[in-house]
Amino acid sequence: MQQTIGDNIFLLIILCTGGISLLVISFVILFINNQKRLLKNRQQIHEAEMSYQKELMRVVLQSQEEERKRIGQDLHDDVGSSLSNLRMLINRKDLAEQQGSGAVLATHKLLIDKIIQDVRNISHNLSPPALALFGFTVALEELIDSINNEDGSLINIINDVEAITDKLPYNMALALIRVLQELISNTIKHGSTKRIEISIFNENGLLAIQYRDEGIGYDPANQKNRKGMGMQNIESRLNMINAAYTVKTAPGAGFAMFIVLNSPLV
Asked: Quick one: 183 exposed, middle or buried, by C-beta within 10 A (0-12, 13-18, 19+)?
């Protein structure tokens, strides 16, 4: 009898121990699953926030481009036309004027010509008309011509895939033009260089752009320098078109950026 009671107690202890173990295991599994769900939810929230920020940046940049286009058209159509008309009026007056005032009129005409050219350059920089009319290659060449030295020695372009770049969607081509424009502006403003090289080529089936200058460079670890070089604006535009980039620079070693579009060439 006592043996039977002992066996029952032993069996009861085993069952209780097994039950507690199963309960603990169940709690552990439940806890792990719960943590996984929380992690997944956090990841989904993070991805949603990143997607929202990316879409917000796209809308902001698109609005900026539309406003640039409007201002550029106004400059070209209104201010540019008015200055051109004024230039013609002075030419007519010049023909009727006596000698002695010709030098003053000539000075005025030179000044107006400079204003007209400045307005044209500003208009093209705000909204490059060549991009919509002729494509990426002509628009980039037009940008370079407006910046380059008279002998064309400052900026050198090598485009091995013109047939591809001229088929880029307008928004993608415009983003790349803006990125290169920003890089050139930063180099001229901060880099103190006499040489800029831009190479566009096929990198394992992807469109790649290498920008390099021989300027003073900067410390990439210095956040103040990053902001001063306009990297945030460049990064936003590249993210908008799903492009990756790497930067190589150091004080006294120039600046280089390698850009790859994460879309196969067609």
From this structure: buried
Domain ranges of the chain: 1-127, 128-266
Q: How confident is the model at residue 145 (pLDDT cuts 50, 70, 90)?
A: confident
174 to 126, 155, 247: CA distances (angstroms): 11, 19, 21
Q: So what CATH class is 128-266?
A: alpha beta
In this structure, of 45-54, 176-185, 252-261, the range with the lowest mean pLDDT score is: 45-54
Output phi, psi for 212, to 5 deg.
-145, 135
Mean pLDDT across 199-218: 91
Q: Which amino acid is at 5?
A: I
As a whole number of angstroms, the distance between CA 72 and CA 127 comes to: 6
Q: Are 230 and 182 in contact (CB under 8 A)?
A: yes
Enter the tokens of residue 162. Answer: 């013109």
Q: Say which DSSP state 148 is in.
A: S
pLDDT at 99: 47
Sheet of 243-249: strand order equals: 155-159, 196-203, 206-213, 255-264, 243-249
- 79 vs 115: CA distance, rounded Å: 10
Q: Please name the amino acid found at residue 180.
A: L
Give the pairing of strands 155-159 and 196-203. parallel
Q: pTM score, two decimals? A: 0.60
**Angstrom distance (rounded) from CA 213 to CA 259:** 15
In the block, residue with structure tokens 């609005």: 63
Provide the residue type at 230 as one letter: G
Q: Tokens 């926030």 correspond to what residue?
A: 49
Q: Which residues pair with 248 in a beta bridge?
A: 256
